[in-house]
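Checklist before submission:
- one chain only
- standard amino acids only
- sequence pasted in full

Submission:
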Amino acid sequence: MSLNLAKSEKAQEFLEDADFNRKWINLYEKCAWATVFQDIQYLKIWNRHYKDVCEVFFVYELDENENLIGLFPLARCRKSDKLFIAGDYHSEYQTWLATEENGNEFAEKAIDLLSTEFPKHRLQLMFLAPNTPLEWLEEKWGKQTRLQTIPRPLVNLGEKNTSEKSLRKRGNKTRIRQLKKQGELKFEEVKCPTEFSRVFDEIEGYSRLRVSGIHNVQLDVDKNRKPFHLDLMKETDWLYSTLLKVGNKISSAQVCLQNRDEMLLSITSMSPFFAKQSPSKIHLLMLGKELKDTDYKNFDLSPGNGYKQRFATETKESYSLTIFFNKTDFLSYTAKRKAVKFGRETLEKVNIKRTRFFKLADKLVHKLKRVKIQTIPRTIFKNIKNRVYEHKECRMYSFDVRRISSLENPNVMKVDSVVDLLKYRPVEAWQDTTSQFHQKVLRRFEEGVHSYSFADDEILLHYGWLIERQEVSGVYEVEQSFNLPKNTAVLFDYYTHPKARGQKLYQKAILQGLHDAAKIPETEQVFIGVLADNEPSRHVIEKLGFKYEGSLFKETRFGFVKKWQVWDQESQIEEKELVLKESYST
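Returned file contents:
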């Protein structure tokens, strides 16, 4: 028996070598724990799109008859030098291939070889393929590995399948009814690569926005991801892609992979515009119902905690395995984990949740990166001065939509563009972090608020918002609120990136918002607010013909706060007490 390492050109030659391919396929069929992600065709397609980013290499073992009895497909990032399993994050289940009797022995020998070749590295198998042999960890490598248990939720597609029954529950029937009010509800399979290509960017954008806004993680744009999945659809029958549409709009998307005798959830995405009705939940139940009459044993929702377990008919165990080739690295990692655990437990004792801590830390780092040292004394002095005396005025303006025909419509802004909003990059210390901004975007879209945006290839240069109908408006800068006249739309929260100022984007966005508001049935007027000392914005608002309605004031004297409102005699405004969550001024 011989253990070998094939790197660079030799590894690429193996992928094209007919004899090696035949041996690979033979071993794959024999390996009881192999998944679709170790199939040679899958990794060939992945290598085609990622070989410029990653160097594929193999640890492999041949018996005395030159038969392949062990194969570990791996890759190394050309930029970071990081080691990972071939297929990277696309491969939901990661493992090595081996004959049943050689599974543990090959794994141990392969790791020995890798630790010699890459002594300063570590290797993580994010989700180990089910039934991967792990007895070898009881030997020496067990002292330099971290094995973490992760739930693997499954929907049984046999008699235990409860998807259809769940769809008939009152809550789900209500969600379906609410979705149908917005358009015809359609469950569609996407079989055509052209159609899949057309919708891919949209569902990818929804997913990235949600990950940023909810999990505080900004995913890098992977330009190879789309063509990789398109080729999977063109060249294999593994992809099962479905959409849940409301009218002609995507409310939810689920992309599954046929993994031997199971269907595996691979990509999931939900439109923020329909999030109130939880379309992903309805979609998953419809998928479970649709798969019931197939030959698949289970619908694998993929490993992880959270909402998926609510859909599962059973939960099995899966594992995440990290192997440290360097003992010092392992000890350092273990010490850091203990410190993090201690910190988390300490925070919990003072009732600070982990997610809140990370958001606060993210905000602090964000501010420190953008605060100029020379401005710190001036900022401190200003804050002290404002505690002694500060006077704020927020001016409110209205526009009668019957006058809109007299104004041009530049129509240069994109409306409700997730692609644009994902390009948000804060440049000033007072701005929201990227995650906070995207969290706000998710909430506003869910509430039916519309965005107006202008971006170049890399950066969001301008944005603003339109509320179709609002009864109460709040301005947190002066900590007050007021009742709006009937049938009023509101424009608010505009911002122009420093590099785009002077291009009249603010004016163009307001004009476009006014024209769109005028098309909303029964709308009579549009309101906008601005702080009195924001002279450039005031100038644009007044130049466009907005009528001044009144002002909200806040005055601070030695810590004592006074708030009041002054409205034009002809104004229909009424003061109202309200707990303010965000501002509706510019």
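Reviewer check: The CA atoms of residues 53 and 185 lie 41 Å apart.
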